[in-house]
Amino acid sequence: MITALDHVQLAAPPGSEDRLRAFYTDVLGLAELPKPPVLAARGGCWFGSGPVQLHLGIETGFRPARKAHPGLRVTVIDAFATRLTDHGITVTWDDNLPGHRRFYADDPVGNRLEFLEPLTGSPQRPR
Predict the structure, then answer these.
(1) Closest Cα partner for 50 from 27, 67, 29?
(2) Shortest CA distance to 115 belongs to which of 28, 19, 21?
(3) How many C-beta neighbours within 10 Å does residue 1 have?
(4) Do the beta carbons of residue 54 and residue 7 sit within 8 Å?
(5) Does some domain include residue 124?
(6) DSSP structure class, residue 25
(7) Which distant-in-sequence residues (6+ apart) come within 8 Å of 22 by Cβ?
(8) 126 within some domain
(9) Which residue segment(s) compose the domain that 113 sits in?
């Protein structure tokens, strides 16, 4: 029986770790997580905040995820969007999910990320 989502893995091109670190830690505010030595030898980076973990793995022949994406729940979404735009990140708002405010942005290698916040008093989607 599945009990939780442990992490989401996104791909990244070889040599992109410094750009990923700057974005995921400085812009998004996630902490870099240590990788086990055997996995660290493969490159890439892991990031987290509380129970949320994003793993960025190096992939030869990388193509960014344009449709598939993690949905990251945030608080004070307007301030979070401003934080991204202040760092030069393009934010694209989308109002097609009832009961939520959300926007999309790309990481520095072109992977699509969704950021969303439930509206106060809105019924939650089934879990």
Answers:
(1) 29
(2) 28
(3) 2
(4) yes
(5) no
(6) I
(7) 108
(8) no
(9) 8-118
The one-letter amino acid at 71:
G
Query: Token pair 């995820």 is at which residue?
Result: 65
Tokens of 5: 């989502």
pLDDT tens digits for range 8-65: 999 999 999 999 999 999 999 999 999 999 999 999 999 999 999 999 999 999 999 9
What's the CATH number where 86 sits? Answer: 3.10.180.10
Instruction: Specify the pTM.
Output: 0.91
pLDDT category of residue 125 using cuts at 50, 70 and 90: low
Q: Would you say 66 and 76 are in contact if contact means Cβ atoms under 8 Å apart?
A: no
Q: Name the nearest CA neighbour of 54 among 90, 87, 27.
A: 27
Q: What is the pLDDT confidence band of residue 3, given thresholds at 50, 70 and 90? A: confident
**Rounded CA separation 101/99 (Å):** 7
Q: State the pairing for strand pair 8-12/52-58.
A: parallel
